[in-house]
Amino acid sequence: MVRLITHNMLACHARNCTKDNFPLVFSDVELVVREAELNPDFLRRFLPKLDWAALVDTARSLGDTALPDDMPAEWTDAQLQHLHHVLLEMHVEEGNMTCRGCGHVYPIQNGIPNMLLAEHEIAR
Ligand SMILES: [Zn+2]
Questions:
Q1: Total domain count for the chain?
Q2: Centroid of ligand 1 to alpha carbon of 100 (angstroms)
Q3: Domain residues for 59?
Q4: Under a CB-based contact definition with an 8 Å cutoff, are residues 106 and 3 in contact?
Q5: Residue-level pLDDT at 124
Q6: How far apart are CA 99 and CA 17, in angstroms?
Q7: Are strands 105-109 and 90-98 parallel, antiparallel or unpaired?
Q8: Which has fewest Cβ within 10 Å: 19, 59, 104, 121?
Q9: CATH number for the domain including 17?
Q10: What is the 93 CA–ligand 1 centroid distance (Å)?
Q11: pLDDT per position as a tens digit, 17-52
Q12: Distance 109 CA to ligand 1 centre (A)
């Protein structure tokens, strides 16, 4: 499954693709929401690893506009709950992730991203 917590770590890995290779841009997405148990400690520990701007852009591209432009310094329970929802409960089941740098399309089918590259795209 592709959740935004995973997507936030994914950059294009095609050979010579080093510019605009993150975040990958979703299109033709089929989104499913599955409730998960909130773990505030996990979320707080994860915050420093997040690329916030990429997360906000991506969430907005999927229709979720409630994340603020800047990462809150102090989190309310409601904000943390919403972050939990965006990171861990939104699942992209079908769709594409496109690299803005090289245009490579990584398809997602049945919740599984295909990160494989063609021979000529592989770094050596
Ligand atoms: Zn690329």
A1: 1
A2: 7
A3: 2-121
A4: no
A5: 59
A6: 9
A7: antiparallel
A8: 19
A9: 2.20.25.10
A10: 22
A11: 999 999 999 999 999 999 999 999 999 999 999 999
A12: 20
